[in-house]
Amino acid sequence: MLQLHTFDQVAAHYASVRPVISIHHDRSDDIRPIGQRRYKWERIIKVDENTYALSDGQYDEAMNKRGYTPEFLLAQYPILWIRKPDGDYVRIRNGSGPYAHISRYTFLGTYLPKGMHFTIDNGLQYIGLHYFATTTGEVKQYRLPKSTYTWDWSAQKPVGEDDHMYLMFKVLQEGKYERAGTLLDVKTRLIDRDLKKQYKAQTNEFFGWFTTMYALLPLTGWNEREASANEINEHEGRKVLDNTWSPFRGEVDINFVRDLLAEPEHPMRTAFAVLIKSDIGYIDTIKTPEELKLLRSRYTRLMNKLLNVFKVEQV
Fold first, then answer.
1. Buried b (16+ CB within 10 A) or exposed e, 138-163
2. Domain definitions of the chain by residue range
3. pTM score, whole prediction
4. In the predicted model, is pLDDT for residue 128 greater than 90?
């Protein structure tokens, strides 16, 4: 098993690995696989004398030749070992974007140092720290949030600024760490009841209109959903819906949702209702109280998400 539990072990491993030379990569690419050489995209990178990265191949300039900026690349590494005057630190970062990052989860589960482990609970990711001095084997869990810092392929530059959505830990000794750096505000799965009450009348009014119009709204496929999402984006003159093929799976502008609910005559009301039916409506018409109840439950969960009425905690 690889011993990559300290900064010195990581630096020594980097020095021990011969760079991969092939028709795709020369010595200047400095491709040094962490493990088996056939998995060369999982590699160890020397950023400078005091910084080493373990890369899973996502946003890897040497592998992809996409023109990523050095700052963007440094931000995206899943595991970063840093030596500072006051000690060593390890930075752990989730993937970017509101979807599952399976390869990153596997990578973190494989290469986190001793004393840390990666888990998923109810769709959320966590880094656990073990404290072996306790008789109960206590584990403290830290939520690992997803970043929104991504790359704009058309403009060939980062989207916005780095949101620094990562966990930083100071190494106290091999296998033991403490949380370091700025605490992060992360959304939980718990509803903020006071915030939700502010939208109750508006969401109830829209649901009443939505169910009245339900039978007249089409059950849409990919093309219809994309057309409705593009119609909203074009009307607003901005990117209200980030993912036009699956609108509510990507980023949605909360201000647009608030404005639409507050205005019963909003011109995008029907287009928005089409997207809602596409997301939560799996029946042609509402025929029974049970179907109405099921639709209401799905609608409530979706509105909780779109209006972001969840409590926030610091990690």
1. eeeebbbbbbebbbeeeeeebeeeee
2. 7-182, 188-314
3. 0.76
4. yes
